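re: ur question from yesterday

yeah so i grabbed the chain u mentioned. its 146 aa long if i counted rite. heres the sequnce exactly as i have it in my notes:
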Amino acid sequence: MIDEDLEGGEEIHEGSDNSPTLTGDVAFLQEQPEISQNPPDLQKRMMNKNLQFFLGVLAYPILLIIAGYFFFEIGWAIGNYDTGVFIQWTVIVGGYVVGIVLGFTSGHRSFAWGIIASIVIIPFLIFILFLILILLLVFSDPIPGM
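ran it thru and got these structure tokens back, copy pasting raw so excuse formatting
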């Protein structure tokens, strides 16, 4: 009985040696990375650099001032006026630092430069507008016809 099983195993081995070998490209059977549904030209593109700068100069500081005021009210409700002011300035300064760091590290350099520029540009524009107002008041004619 054992001899019969041994002979059958030899026949299988001989049959596999004589069988033809399959050839061809089997690369499609290998796991391939998932292909995006979007065409390559519609892949994620960064925003326009001028738009990023504009958002950093005007929109982000306005957002921080609104958030700071909101946290000021919370701080005033929790403690007193000084607590509210401290929380407000912590939120605003922390927001500036976080915005600049995230702008540079995420590749949105124009946004980060816009935030840095807003620290200088916005106070400078307010100062210029104040000077223009003073000049208009000084050189205007208070009573027409005199």
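noticed a couple things. The mean pLDDT is 81. also Residues 109-139 form the longest helix (31 residues).
anyway ttyl
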